[in-house]
Design brief:
- The protein is mainly alpha-helical and 284 residues long.
- It starts with 18 loop residues before the first strand and ends with a helix.
- It has 2 domains: 8-131, no CATH class; 162-282, no CATH class.
- Helix content is 45%, strand content 5%.
- Strands 1-2 form a two-stranded antiparallel ribbon.
């Protein structure tokens, strides 16, 4: 059971990813990170303001739409992905406003069980039935690990839609271990858990992120409007890296072979940490 009532059995892939628990949730499909400044500090400030302001709004159609107009007039309309809608009804929800969520949801504060999501850009039906590709493309155990390993909603929302990057990382760990990983094998092993967290948080501070690819968000829809650019290995005099999928998903750009090797070593190092810790534990 999730914090807002959905069960794992009710969603594609059998693991609920949207509102997981009091501190873990995702607003990526609502364009959370598709803003001029997607830093944690900036998003917290924006979401906190909206939450305070919406608490004063009468739950009627015209006042709610007026709130939307005020938010959009107040905030920058610059978007890294121009065709990806950013919902002005994203705010902070839960006890102590501990995570990101929908201010129009029937279980949000002040809504008294009434579903106002029909007033959003895509309408209430889209909010109820849309599930991001990670529901379908990530394995059960990989989804369970990520939703438990992420330190907070901010990191979780940045990485949970990165299905290619996550699958490739975990599959390489499994290849080296020559067996599937388990949720307990990662989460109950302090060194494994820390290595996985380091990997997830590469999204925050990846030093080789292409300067021409603005923002931190991931455009994960199937229309390929904003595909991540391939890495020009030929310009480096190199063949395709064994880490190519992860490097491309991190939107990497390298000025030299040394930079490429440094990036590969970061990834290999994290994979080695998980594998080494797993072997050490299994041999005790």
């Amino acid at each position: 059971m999730s914090i807002w009532g959905n069960t794992d059995n009710e969603v594609p892939g059998g693991v609920y990813l949207c509102q997981v628990h009091e501190h873990i949730s995702c607003g990526a499909c609502c364009g959370l990170y598709n803003v001029a400044d997607p830093s944690l500090e900036a998003l917290r400030e924006v979401l906190a303001y909206r939450t305070r302001a919406f608490a004063l709004v009468p739950r009627e159609i015209d006042p709610i739409l007026g709130f939307k107009e005020r938010v959009e007039a107040r905030e920058s309309r610059k978007r890294p992905f121009a065709d990806f809608h950013h919902c002005p009804f994203l705010g902070l929800v839960g006890m102590g406003h501990s995570r990101v969520g929908c201010l129009l949801h029937p279980l949000a504060d002040g809504n008294k069980g009434i579903d106002f999501r029909g007033l959003s850009f895509y309408g209430g039906m889209a909010c109820r039935v849309y599930f991001c590709p990670s529901y379908y493309h990530l394995s059960t155990v990989h989804k369970e690990i990520v939703r438990e390993a992420a330190r907070d909603w901010y990191v979780y929302g940045l990485v949970i839609t990165e299905s290619k990057m996550l699958s490739t990382f975990f599959q390489e760990v499994e290849r080296r271990l020559n067996k599937p990983i388990t949720k307990g094998g990662i989460l109950d092993n302090k060194k494994c858990l820390e290595a996985v967290r380091e990997f997830l948080e590469l999204k925050l501070h990846w030093p080789f992120r292409a300067e021409t690819f603005t923002g931190l968000g991931n455009y994960f829809f199937g229309d390929q409007l904003y595909s991540k650019p391939p890495i020009d290995y030929e310009a480096l005099g190199e063949t395709t890296s064994a880490c190519d999928i992860i490097l491309q998903e991190l939107v990497s750009d390298f000025g030299s072979v040394n930079e490429l090797r440094e990036a590969e070593n970061i990834l290999y190092g994290l994979i080695d940490k998980v594998v080494s810790a797993s072997f050490t534990t299994s041999q005790k």
